[in-house]
Amino acid sequence: MSDRNQLILRELRSNGRLSVDELAQKCKCSAVTVRRALQELQNQGLIVRTPGGAIPIDHIGVEVAFPERLTINAEQKRRIAQKAAQLIEDNSVILMDNGSSVYLMADYMSKKNNLTIITFFLPLVNKLAIRDDWKIIIPGGQLRQERSDLVGPLTEEFVKKIYADKLFFGADGLDITSGISTVDQESAKLTQILVNCASQRILLADSSKLTRRATFASVGWDKVDKWIVDDGIDKESIDKIRNQNVKLEIV
């Protein structure tokens, strides 16, 4: 890693979030140079680009826009999504949340027949609305523009009344001991409801999530039946997760 990239990473870890202009001043270089460095750091899984700046990957206390979430560890997320889609059975009912890996599942589901899909994530609805034999159910609720999803009491009450064969859900952060965390309280509360609405709860999250915690605790490992994760996960973490009675699918 170059000296400039190391400096940028130190500044981000010290401050939590900085704009391109602020980083350019601190590093005494141009905004173009900073943007190039931020892209390199994001490709290494060390930071997350945000509108006009960046945050370090181990400081997830703020919202990251959905298009930017898709670019983080993109190849790993594709492998995770493809494996998850293989677990869907014809004629089944599935719940899909607003995770980026969950969103990518739609690219690998075309051979599945007669599905009932429940989701509150609007970009996912657009991808799923391609098959006449798929029934798409969208709970009501309040639209969150930054996440393009529906949340709130209406969504929660609706979800409490349904039951699915499988739930596919993501996480903003993970901890070996405590489990899953998210950057906002509404998402945490909704996940706590979702995990009680399905026969099998399947977590889709790349291994980098183990390096950080988000602000709000969501659910523990006792609410996860299977975790699909990339092969970047270390042996010690594998053993500890399996000791939590979670089945691991490593891709």
**What level of helicity do the residues show?**
25-40%
Please name the CATH architecture of the largest domain. Answer: 3-Layer(aba) Sandwich
Counting structural domains, the number is 2
Distance between the termini: 27 Å
Q: Sum up the overall morphology in one term.
A: globular
Using the CA coordinates, give the radius of gyration: 19 Å
* Number of helices, counting only DSSP H or I runs of 4 residues or more: 10
Please provide the count of β strands.
Answer: 15
Residue-averaged pLDDT: 89
Instruction: List unreliable stretches of 5+ residues.
Output: none
Oligomerization: single chain
The CATH topology of the largest domain turns out to be Rossmann fold
What does this 3D model show about the protein?
The protein is of the alpha/beta class. It has two domains: 3-59, Arc Repressor Mutant, subunit A, CATH 1.10.10.10; 71-250, Rossmann fold. Helix content is 37%, strand content 23%. Strands 6-5-4-9-12-14-15 form a seven-stranded parallel β-sheet, sandwiched between helices. Strands 1-3-2 form a three-stranded antiparallel β-sheet. The protein has a three-stranded antiparallel β-sheet with strand order 10-11-13. The model has no long low-confidence stretch (mean pLDDT 89).
Gist of the model:
This protein has 2 domains: 3-59, Orthogonal Bundle (Arc Repressor Mutant, subunit A), CATH 1.10.10.10; 71-250, Rossmann fold (3-Layer(aba) Sandwich), CATH 3.40.50.1360.
What is the secondary structure topology, with strand pairs?
Layout: H1 3-15, E1 18-19, H2 20-27, H3 31-43, E2 47-50, E3 53-56, H4 66-71, H5 74-86, E4 93-96, H6 100-105, E5 116-119, H7 122-128, E6 135-137, E7 142-144, E8 149-151, H8 153-160, E9 164-169, E10 173-175, E11 179-182, H9 185-194, E12 198-204, E13 216-217, E14 226-229, H10 235-242, E15 247-250
Parallel strand pairs: 4-5, 4-9, 5-6, 9-12, 12-14, 14-15
Antiparallel strand pairs: 1-3, 2-3, 7-8, 10-11, 11-13
